[in-house]
Design goal:
Shape: globular
Order of helices and strands: HHHHHHHEEHHHHHH
Mean pLDDT: 77
Oligomer: single chain
Structural class: mainly alpha
Radius of gyration: 36 Å
Number of domains: 1
Strand content: under 5%
Low-confidence stretches: 330-345
Strand order of the largest sheet: 1-2
Number of strands: 2
Largest sheet: 2 strands, antiparallel
Amino acid sequence: MSQDGEERGSERTQVAETTARREALLLAALLAALYGVLVAAPLVRGVPPVAGGVAVTVLFAAAALGIAALGARVRLGPPGELVSMVLALGLWWAVGGLGEREGTVRLLALPGADVIFVLACVLAGRLLSRIVRERNIMLPIAIVLALTDVFTVFVGPVALALTHAPELVEQLSMKLPEVGSAAPEGAAGLSHFATLGLGDIIFAALLLAGAARFGLNFRATFWWILGTVVVGLALFVAVPGIPPMPVLPLMAIAFLIANRGRFELSREERRITIVAFIFVGALLAGLGVLAHMLVARLPAPPPETPPAVEQPQSSDAAQPQSPAVEQPQSPAVEQPQSPDAAQPQ
């Protein structure tokens, strides 16, 4: 019996190692595929903007969430996650600096920086998931994340940053390139039509890592999150005029649907959860009021000075002046003296 048990244990170990190697190779393939999409998209010609934007959005979301799902299952302890995240952030900073240059280097470096940033966010999500100790805690976490994301996007820090510091938001986001933007002019014409925030990837990795660690329905969680996010982002790109869409509520809804019936809260846990929701809602409302008060105190940006317009000269000024004509002076005529003046006294 002991020998049979050892054989079964050895077989399980071999299967686990084979699965781990396969997932690691698939993770590397997804990273390479995401890089290829970001590099090739701005160089493709002849694609309608809406169709190209939807295609890039779907491919990017599928690859990024696939990286988050595989990254959640990689065998790595907390020290390895921390060291890998720090190394990835350092590499992202270095490669992002190369993306500020001109020419072909920019076209190759910016996508590389975004791919590395996705990997760093996945590792950060794994680290955050270590805080969760019980399966039931994943339920309030998903709901609180959804509420917080709605707040930050519409009235909170993200909304303020989009208004007052859009460059910072773009720097800390994954950028989706506009299809064909670099085809005619190269790197000088490269432009982006949408961004995906770092929080979206971090918390997607947190939800997937929690599903894997606590024995939830991992496969259904991944497919539900992928489907809702892809549909939501595709609608945002395809329909003009839609405001910025928070992605975390879509992920939270998908997580709860995929794992319905898997959470068993006691009466005390339900009471604590309700109190926590009320507290978080009040806190977010207060932060929203405070943010708007701070924004109201900020000095208004100076108005833009319109460019000076040269006024056309009047017709009188445009006409050349006629040269002055000198009038000939009449010669002086001497009047003859009277005969009385000529006679002596």
